[in-house]
Amino acid sequence: MGNFFHGGGRDLSLSNGGTAVFVDVLMLAVSDLAESVWEYRFTTLLTLQDQSVMGRGVVGFDLEDIDWGRSPRERTAAKDFVLRVLDLALRRHRWDELGYDPPFAEGYLRQYREMVEAFDPADAGRHAGGDSPFPGPEEATVAMCVRHRVLCAPAYWEPCVFCNASH
Predict the structure, then answer these.
(1) 28, 94 in Cβ contact below 8 A?
(2) What is the pLDDT of residues 95-113, one digit of tens each?
């Protein structure tokens, strides 16, 4: 069983272990960069990829399902944020805090960055009818796990992805 992240006609297929690593390194980066409501919504989407809670082999999302914004300016800012998160993660930001060596994480991040870079947010919005898996503004993650210094989603569950993994 594995997990799929789709976007722009491309796929990133990850094993359950690969997904856990992918989410871990992204959470370290996104938690230090998020500032706007949209950025916290994207962070919440990442917290929902926590297999310790959601189950193994059942996470992943499509870039097309994300609410990138209504205007070209909003869509550009959102895409730039995701690319900045990926770039920070690719610089091994806080990886020394992981407690393990993620030998394949860089490859996952590079592949996903290529997907995001090639993706046109104007093509998104397949779920405009309100059934989008992208968290709404009222669900945006703003709570920080004091122990791990990463954002968590108390609207869904209290612990962060690292707390959940240690149980």
Answers:
(1) yes
(2) 999 999 999 999 999 999 9
Residue 23: count of CB within 10 angstroms of its CB: 23
- What DSSP designation does 122 have? G
pTM of the model: 0.90
CA-CA distance, 8 to 166, in Å (whole number)? 35
Residue 1 burial (CB count, 10 A): 8
**Lookup: tokens for 18:** 């690969």
Provide CB contacts within 8 A for 71, sequence distance 6+. Answer: none
Q: How far apart are the first and last CA of the chain?
A: 22
Q: Is pLDDT at 158 greater than 80 in this prediction?
A: no
Cβ atoms of residues 45 and 7 within 8 Å? no
Distance, CA of 40 to CA of 9 (rounded, Å): 26
- Phi and psi dihedrals of 152, rounded to 5? -135, 170
The DSSP letter of residue 34 is -
* Contact present, 142 and 44 (Cβ < 8 Å): no
> Residue with structure tokens 């960069």?
33
What 3-state DSSP class applies to 116?
A: helix
Confidence of residue 136 (pLDDT cuts 50, 70, 90): confident
